[in-house]
């Protein structure tokens, strides 16, 4: 085990990896604000309400994430990239100070794969009324504040302190131990591997991660979905379960990987509840982002004017103005969405969706709100064709589809077409209890 060196704090170098951006920041506040600007430019540019239903893609390098549940999900995802970038920087500083440990040998292309963030971060400290956070950095700082605000007798650094988290009866000796204990509730990590992006709760666990790699002869088993590697087939099979969508919507064929994502699906797809109302008209919507976009329509004066001489373009949002500049004055609006059938390219996912639907007669399965697009090695975003379902769930969907088909055959109403059949591409993965399905 390496010596327990106390590292001097060094300035962070937080590099933005959104698209071609390479801006760098030393403070998280500035970094997060900058990253949020990319999101506004990419998703607040259009004026019709169909934009609320279109694909929202993360353009962070080597990520390829596509939001399904709405703009809030993509915002949480982006802020987690910012937090993850900070942890990787801290990990790089730790490993640089301990060169004898070595470096990570796992594929570098996994470095920006981050976990699913289905909900905002909620503080469950007793009597805390702080609204949920969408940014993990601010959430963890807030929870740390609770540990700092507890009264501790002067000079007694190891006095037992009761944790006041909901339903927790644990005690910790002193503030540092309480802070460490709170991470068991928040799942906060303190460092990440700069090579593969894995996050850890302590520097020691990061060291173990690096040392364990050199002890293994090789990691021959690779996940076909996210490309992570494992030393044994059993470890790979256990990992594959994290990709499986176990939870089926009772109202349609949609399946979700977690109960929280299923709740969000039902809220946005099957509920008519619209709790956010406009104070100026009868408009209401399901989330705060859409309400803010609507409120801009009540502004009599456009807030932004094109600064190119001779151009009279105006807009209500900076995102619309930025895209106008790229399209009309910079010529840099890249068509990154590519049809995997004919190779035609589009600047927006929604345009490719319309193309696949009308040109190639593709349809998504019942309950799935839209196509998903995944970034490939050549930089283009193409239709994601594989989705993992549990064996039992897949077989249930197949039986339901066959029953519906039989009823249509009996009624004589069957129509011919070139629909994408999600059951036609079922394949077994390692006999490990999950299947891939085209969606």
From TrEMBL:
Signal peptide: none annotated. SUPFAM superfamilies: beta-beta-alpha zinc fingers (SSF57667). Residues 407-422 have a biased composition (Acidic residues). It comes from the Eukaryota. GO terms for cellular component: nucleus. Residues 161-190, 221-248, 247-275, 276-303, 337-365 form the C2H2-type domain. One of its GO terms (molecular function) is zinc ion binding. Residues 399-422 are annotated as: Disordered. Its main location: nucleus. Pfam families: zf-C2H2, zf-met. GO terms for biological process: negative regulation of DNA-templated transcription. Keywords: DNA-binding, Metal-binding, Nucleus, Repeat, Zinc, Zinc-finger. It is found in: Nucleus. This is C2H2-type domain-containing protein. It comes from Echeneis naucrates (Live sharksucker).
């Amino acid at each position: 085990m390496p010596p327990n060196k106390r590292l001097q704090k060094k300035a962070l170098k937080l590099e933005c990896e959104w698209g071609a951006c390479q801006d760098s920041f030393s403070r998280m506040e500035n970094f997060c604000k900058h990253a949020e600007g990319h999101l506004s430019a990419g998703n607040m540019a259009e004026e019709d309400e169909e934009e609320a239903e279109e694909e929202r893609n993360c353009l962070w390098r080597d990520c390829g994430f596509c939001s399904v549940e709405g703009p809030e999900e993509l915002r949480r995802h982006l802020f987690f990239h910012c937090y993850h970038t900070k942890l990787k920087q801290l990990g790089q500083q730790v490993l640089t100070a301990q060169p004898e440990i070595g470096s990570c040998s796992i594929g570098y292309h996994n470095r920006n794969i981050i976990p699913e963030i289905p909900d905002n971060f909620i503080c469950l400290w007793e009597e805390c009324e702080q609204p949920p956070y969408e940014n993990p950095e601010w959430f963890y700082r807030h929870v740390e504040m609770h540990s700092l605000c507890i009264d501790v007798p002067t000079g007694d650094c190891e006095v037992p302190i009761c944790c006041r988290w909901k339903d927790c009866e644990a005690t910790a000796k002193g503030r540092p131990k309480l802070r460490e204990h709170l991470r068991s509730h928040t799942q906060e990590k303190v460092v990440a591997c700069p090579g593969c992006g894995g996050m850890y709760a302590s520097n020691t666990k990061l060291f173990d991660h690096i040392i364990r790699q050199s002890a293994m002869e090789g990691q021959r088993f690779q996940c076909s979905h996210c490309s992570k590697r494992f030393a044994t087939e059993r470890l790979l099979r256990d990992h594959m379960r994290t990709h499986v969508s176990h939870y089926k919507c009772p109202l349609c064929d949609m399946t979700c990987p977690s109960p929280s994502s299923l709740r969000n699906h039902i809220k946005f797809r099957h509920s008519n509840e619209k709790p956010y109302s406009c104070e100026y008209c009868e408009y209401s919507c399901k989330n705060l982002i859409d309400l803010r976009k609507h409120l801009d329509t009540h502004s009599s004066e456009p807030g932004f004017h094109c600064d190119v001489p001779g151009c009279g373009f105006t807009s209500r949002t900076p995102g619309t103005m930025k895209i106008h500049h790229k399209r009309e004055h910079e010529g840099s609006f890249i068509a990154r969405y590519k049809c995997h059938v004919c190779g035609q390219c589009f600047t927006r996912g929604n345009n490719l969706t319309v193309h696949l639907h009308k040109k190639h007669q593709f349809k998504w399965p019942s309950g799935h709100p839209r196509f998903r697009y995944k970034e490939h090695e050549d930089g283009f975003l193409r239709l994601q064709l594989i989705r993992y379902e549990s064996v039992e769930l897949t077989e249930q969907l197949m039986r339901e589809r066959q029953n519906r088909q039989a009823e249509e055959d009996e009624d004589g109403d069957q129509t011919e077409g070139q629909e994408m059949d999600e059951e036609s591409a079922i394949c077994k993965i390692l006999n490990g209890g999950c299947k891939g399905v085209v969606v």
